[in-house]
Every structure is written in C-alpha cells, then in structure tokens.
Design a protein that fits this description.
173 residues; 10 strands; ten-stranded mixed beta sheet; mainly beta
Length: 173
C-alpha cells in the first residue's frame, strides 16, 4: 500500500492447528473471517483484493517507489486501488454467485480499454473502460454459479483507479 514496504494492509484468515501442533498453509482470501465466500450481491471496497500485480512489481524496497505500479492508497477516507495499467491483475477470492449477475466497478482515470473478468478457469465477461476525471460506474452481466475467484485483468492504455465492486443479481432473465 502507498507504494512502500512500510505501509501494509492487514488481513485475517482462520487457521487450523492440527493435533501435532502444525499449522497447514493458509491461503490469503478476500473473505477474512467471514465463514465462507462473500455473497455476490451489494457493494464491496476494491481494496479487499487479495492479489494485486502487474508482474513487474519490485519485491523489496526500503524507500517509496516512484515507478507507476498498482497499489492501494487513499484520499481522506476514500480508499481505492490506484495506477491500474495494461497488464494489471486484481484478484478476489471468493465470491458466491447464484447465476446471472451484473458486475460493475466504480472507476476513474485516463484508462481506455477493457477489464476482463474471469474465474480460475474461464473468461466471464468484459467491462468497457473509458476515460473519466470523476468516479463513474461501468459494468457487464456475467453468468456464474458457485464459489469462485473473480479476477480482473486490464488491457488497454492509460491508468485508472477502482474504488468499488458492485454485484446485482439479475432476476427473471
């Protein structure tokens, strides 16, 4: 967060301590202590992502990084994922889907391109991104059932910020 190794975002996951005292590897998710996948309904802050990379990010820096790279930041109380550029992947594990769902993001920036939505195995849909100085909403309808990761991959030009992820179940379709 904030492009330094000194600023971290805390996370919490349930652990299991085996009878022999060992603790099996615990995967990091976006669910925290929620007792299972998050419902794919309502709004979630984009900063609950458990995976954020552009595959060129440095791993150990003792100073603030000046290069453009995706990171979590804030403006006052407003927290968001910033500097999302071509090749950035934002991952959320796990959402419980129940069929046809409108998935939207609240975004802003100079970016023009597409956010490709996928799960662990296949593409689910694409959100067209257009430049905007102000926060605006862009979305698409996907078809998914069950608990899955939701991966957002940006392909395009420019940079954007994402503040929220919204889900609206489509009924009667």
């Amino acid at each position: 967060t904030h492009k330094t190794t000194f600023s971290r975002q805390g996370c919490a996951e349930k652990i299991t301590i085996l009878e022999d005292g060992t603790i099996p590897q615990v995967p990091v998710t976006s669910c925290g202590l929620n007792d299972g996948p998050l419902k794919a309904e309502g709004s979630y802050p984009a900063v609950i992502c458990c995976h954020l990379t552009n595959e060129k990010m440095p791993h150990q820096e003792t100073k603030k990084i000046e290069d453009v790279m995706p990171h979590i930041t804030n403006e006052g109380e407003n927290r968001f994922v910033s500097e999302i550029g071509n090749g950035t992947r934002i991952g959320y594990k796990y959402f419980a889907f129940e069929g046809e769902t409108q998935v939207s993001v609240t975004c802003r920036g100079t970016a023009e391109g597409v956010l490709i939505l996928s799960n662990e195995e296949k593409e689910l849909g694409r959100i067209q991104i257009t430049p905007s100085e102000n926060w605006n909403e862009a979305g698409t309808v996907i078809q998914e059932k069950g608990a899955h990761a939701l991966l957002l991959d940006f392909a395009g030009e420019g940079l954007m910020d994402i503040k929220d992820l919204m889900f609206t179940e489509k009924k009667g379709n």
